[in-house]
Amino acid sequence: MTITEIQNEIIEEFSMFDDWQERYQYMIDLGKTLPLISSEYKTDDNIITGCQSKVWVHANMNNDKVEFTADSDAIITKGIIAILIRVFSNQHPKDIIEGNTEFIDTIGLKEHLSPTRANGLVSMIKQIKMYALAYQTQLN
Amino acid sequence: MINVDKIREDFPILNRKVNGKPLIYFDNAATSQTPQQVIDVIVDYYSNYNANIHRGVHTLSQEATDLYEGARLKIQKHFNAKHNYEIILTSGTTHGINLVASSFSSLLEKGDEVLVSALEHHSNIVPWQMLCERTGATLKVIPMNEQGELIMSDYEALLSQKTKLVFVNHISNALGTINPIKKIIEMAHEVGAAVLVDGAQSCPHIKPDVQDLDVDFYVVGAHKMCGPTGVGLLYGKEEWLNKLPPYQGGGEMIDQVTFEKTTYAGLPHKFEAGTPNICGGIAFGAAVDYLNGIGFDAIASYEHELLDYATQQLLDIEGLKIYGTAKEKTSVISFNIQGIHPYDIGTILDKMGIAVRTGHHCAQPIMDFYKIPGTVRASFAFYNTKQEIDALVEGVKTAKMMLS
């Protein structure tokens, strides 16, 4: 599936919910499906420090596609990461670089990607794109 | 007695909704809300009196100066300083601390010791570390116990003829502990050390008497006590303020300037370089009037009632632990629920319109002491209600259910 197709799929899943509590509950459940970063990569080098919750991200290349694993010490942050990784993992570097995150707004979780929110997610998206850019350079 | 319904009418912000729910504001230790009486003063200043002060001969400047200096007198009276020129108006608590730390450099030398309490906010740690780096003095820490109280016997043991300065907050922002500052000051003075008390957290709850405390420096931010941000107080004893060199150079703080030599203005202007936050200073005075109109005894007793009520209700939640259980504490509750990150709880509460603080509260050493990344902190003011606390308790229960 392309990035856009996955995003549309997620939008459809979230459209089933009427209130914030159901959306959050679903996001928290999605957090449990996050492909967890293996402990050898869960190091300070791979940490993205938001002010309050910690986020770890690791990437590797498999058949010209970038695979991401991650973790966070906060459950809600972990849920958002799971959504982002579902969108961007197993995609070509070029598509990741060009991909946007506007769907997060559509599913009613916009506040989590605010640059002023101290959860490290904006930095995480930057990091995902940086990995993609690095792999794209390798492919060229 | 507090008539909370009537008081709430003074705070327009309490009528707004957040995420579709009525705002419940429990982040008072970070900043307090502003009553209409103070907002009116700000609007009135810019509508009728805006001018630069102290040097204009024109009427507007004279009037603005009278208002500003009038506010200084109100603040002097409130803190019971002996002289109005011992009241230095700053940009806030942090500014006051940095002013003293910077100016004190000239009075310290290698081998001197400065003591800081384990309960401090980063702003009452970092400036002193910088001071020690500049002067070669040594920073030592007064430890605390599990309840979040300073260990007075350890403090006594740390004091010596080498001790030149002691820094301690009146009330801890992270835990709410009220420190025995009168005793701390008395003991420091026995070895000839000066004491700076960070009053950022005490000023909304109690009315400190700087002469009775015999404190050397006392710092406060107006926004913690229903005033605006960007203005605060540094009280300093006259003898200390005369001993310290100026902090910043500029207009207002000079007597005579030539390219060969400048002589400085007298107190308080020596420490008030540049155009001050005039409107902020006047509004600070209005905030002091407002709080005194309600009365600090009434405020303290009502807030204590809220604290006891909230403590009981929250402790009924299984797995909830309160950090900071000092015998003397103010209306701050720092807590965690076992296995749940404070950030998650804060996020869920926000969805319900409840504003709390999460994180390390700029007091990482305290978090390290308890070996936790942070806490959820609910801090109550005299305009909060028991119904709001009920909503908080329900919110925490919901968050726990969703996050477990």
From TrEMBL, chain B:
Pfam families given in the database record: Aminotran_5
Root EC class: transferase
GO molecular function: cysteine desulfurase activity; pyridoxal phosphate binding
InterPro entries listed in its UniProt record: Aminotrans_V_dom (IPR000192), Aminotrans_V_PyrdxlP_BS (IPR020578), Cys_dSase_SufS (IPR010970), Cysteine_dSase (IPR016454), PyrdxlP-dep_Trfase (IPR015424), PyrdxlP-dep_Trfase_major (IPR015421), PyrdxlP-dep_Trfase_small (IPR015422)
Catalytic activity: (sulfur carrier)-H + L-cysteine = (sulfur carrier)-SH + L-alanine
Gene3D superfamilies, A to Z: Aspartate Aminotransferase, domain 1, Type I PLP-dependent aspartate aminotransferase-like (Major domain)
UniProt entry keywords in alphabetical sequence: Pyridoxal phosphate, Transferase
Protein name stated in the entry: Cysteine desulfurase
Source organism per UniProt: Psychroserpens burtonensis
